[in-house]
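S1.2 Input.
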Amino acid sequence: MTSPTINLRKAVTLEIGALKQPVVTLYELSVIINKLYKAGSYKGSELTNIKKNRANRSDCVRVIGGLLDIGIIEEGVALRHPEVFSILGREQSPSLEIICVVDPFAYVSHLSAMEWHGLTDRISHTLFYSSPTPKNWQHHALSKMEKDLGTRGVKSYLANGLPRLKRLNFDKVNRAPTHRYLSNHLGAFISIRKSVLRVSTIGRTFHDMLREPELCGGIYHVLDIFEEFSSKYLILIVDEIDRHGTQIDKVRAGYILEERLNLSEPRIDKWREYIQRGGSRKLHAKSPYSAEYSKNWSISLNI
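S1.3 Output.
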């Protein structure tokens, strides 16, 4: 009996079709091709047009070029970058999902997250997302490559001239401008079911409002959101700021939640230990100092 066979290009096409994402990167395509070469088969069918068990750069260029020729993938549709390809039939995919594919360690944040969670009625024309700092990004990238290829497989993969996982720079997706906020850690986010989308948690979204109000519609909009939603999400807000907030984050949050909004939670009282009497701390970091201040929290009410 003759063993079933399959063409390499068809096998790669099927692998791309199985991806639950709107775009695919050069790195992802190269990993797929490399694995097929290494396996020599696809779901029990022998690959007919390969004669070795390792792919090199020219192999990937040839296969990807063939996929472009027949329209399985296309360059520069949603995101103009030479290492990002739209997948056939998914050209109108949400921009935020595309960001989460192109940067596997990013998540939607700030005003875009506020909009997603229903905290604001403002439409975010800029796409805001958070991503690790370059050093931390490289650390996460190496861990992902080892997961994708195996610890030993990374060395041979790179030795054959295949592309490493790297941060890709872009300033627009589907013509919408993007803003990347660099974070020292991966942050607290939720992964959306049946989607590649990752969005900052409610608590982290409120925390971001305190730290970067300019990326969240401005300080006055932030205070309006705190006034409208803090009682509903109080425990989530306090959990996040208590665990990850700096001293000044806790003082600002304490003033807003307790003194301004008359909300109480035992951990807020403990934040008083971070008060600095006679200091020059300000409620809004980027506004001039004001002589009006909160006696309870020793913070200048400079807005």
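S1.4 Remarks. Residues 134-149 form the longest helix (16 residues).
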